[in-house]
């Protein structure tokens, strides 16, 4: 807008200058006409008023006409017209150059605007490409999330089935333990009845036939005429991790099991002979795990052995004497939770032993 205003002002100046020069030339022509008229009137000596009729002198080289001021005025007019024409041409040239500069500037501005528009379009396309890439990544992540959700549902179903199977296995295990205890009790009763019947049969045969072995017949087991025997010593050769709920510690190596009162599978001692018993056990802790072991009598904890979650393996022992009645049960129990564990190898670092101190027959 500023450039247009400048062009208008320049053009107005040119028109004003041309108008001024034209007016000045017209004034001088009018003066020249008056002077020529006066000269003609004087030279021809005509009477009457002077008219504007131009009379050409007979002798063009008349000294009176050459020396008249009209020739000077005409010369000045030509010179002024030439100056005006030169100035007009110069202004026209400046205007033409300005117009060319203006056109060049407009062309450069148009080119810059085209370049800027092209750059903006390129950036817009780049942004569109980035947005499309982000949309593709989001879609891929959504698909991956859906796949992981499906996998998670499958794992949850597996966990539920595993927990259900674990519950069933625990129920079966408890049933098997109960059946083992029943079988052990029945076996013990059967042995006692068999020994009693054998003694009675021997007594009957001895009384009827008069036959007695040297030293006499051994007393029947039910009479407890001799000191009963009950002792065991077992070891575990593998490590064991805690679980929920707490579980009994089983043993896989038997050193002594006099009377068959100790069941290594579930690590349970079942009293066959009532009396006072001595028990002792040794445990080695696991690296970075707690060890909380309890000696349990009929579901009640009697003594415990405890170690912190130290990086070193620690071995500890615990002992106790208990008064047990017939069919009382004693076992070792590892506390619940995966942060509990005990360690053993083939060198038998976990042991459990017990024996009858004296029987209580009454």
Tell me what the structure shows.
By secondary structure, this protein is an alpha+beta fold. The protein folds into three domains: 1-40 and 71-80; 119-208; 229-362, Jelly Rolls (Sandwich). 52% of the residues lie in helices and 20% in strands. A hairpin with a 4-residue loop joins β5 (262-263) and β6. Keywords: Coiled coil, Secreted, Signal.
Summary?
The protein has 362 residues and is of the alpha+beta class. The chain is 52% helix and 20% strand. The protein has 3 domains: 1-40 and 71-80; 119-208; 229-362, Jelly Rolls (Sandwich), CATH 2.60.120.40.
SSE blueprint and pairings:
Elements: H1 2-44, H2 63-66, H3 69-209, E1 231-236, E2 240-241, E3 247-248, E4 253-258, E5 262-263, E6 268-270, E7 275-284, E8 291-297, E9 300-307, E10 315-324, E11 329-334, E12 341-342, E13 350-359
Antiparallel strand pairs: 1-4, 1-13, 2-12, 3-11, 5-6, 6-11, 7-10, 7-13, 8-9, 8-11
Helix pairs in contact: 1-3
């Amino acid at each position: 807008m500023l450039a247009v205003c400048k062009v208008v002002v320049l053009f107005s100046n040119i028109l004003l200058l041309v108008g001024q020069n034209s007016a000045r030339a017209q004034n001088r022509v009018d003066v020249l006409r008056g002077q020529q008229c006066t000269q003609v009137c004087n030279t021809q000596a005509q009477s009457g008023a002077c008219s504007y009729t131009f009379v050409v002198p007979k002798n063009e080289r008349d000294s009176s006409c050459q020396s008249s001021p009209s020739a000077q005025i005409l010369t000045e007019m030509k010179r002024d017209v030439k100056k005006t024409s030169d100035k007009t041409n110069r202004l026209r040239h400046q205007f033409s150059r300005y117009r060319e500069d203006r056109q060049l500037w407009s062309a450069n501005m148009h080119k810059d605007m085209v370049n800027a528009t092209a750059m903006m379009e390129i950036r817009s396309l780049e942004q569109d490409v980035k947005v499309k890439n982000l949309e593709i990544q989001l879609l891929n992540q959504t698909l991956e999330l859906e796949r992981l959700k499906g996998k998670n549902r499958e794992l949850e179903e597996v966990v539920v089935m595993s927990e259900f199977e674990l519950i069933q296995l625990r129920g079966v295990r408890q049933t098997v333990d109960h059946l083992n205890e029943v079988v052990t009790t029945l076996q013990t009763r059967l042995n006692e009845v068999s020994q009693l019947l054998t003694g009675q049969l021997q007594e009957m045969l001895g009384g009827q036939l008069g036959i007695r072995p040297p030293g006499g017949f051994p007393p029947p087991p039910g009479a407890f005429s001799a000191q009963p025997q009950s002792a065991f010593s077992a070891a575990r050769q593998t490590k064991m991790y805690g679980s929920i709920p707490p579980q009994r510690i089983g043993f896989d190596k038997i050193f002594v099991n006099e009377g068959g009162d100790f069941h290594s599978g579930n690590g349970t001692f079942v009293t066959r002979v009532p009396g006072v018993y001595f028990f002792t056990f040794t445990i080695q802790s696991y690296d970075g795990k707690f060890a909380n072991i309890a000696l349990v009598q009929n579901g009640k904890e009697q003594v415990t052995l405890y170690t912190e979650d130290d990086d070193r393996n620690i071995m500890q022992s615990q002992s106790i004497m208990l008064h047990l009645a017939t069919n009382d049960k004693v076992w070792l129990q590892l506390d619940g939770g995966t942060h509990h564990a005990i360690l053993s190898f083939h060198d038998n670092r976990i042991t459990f032993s017990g024996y009858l101190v004296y029987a209580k027959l009454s």
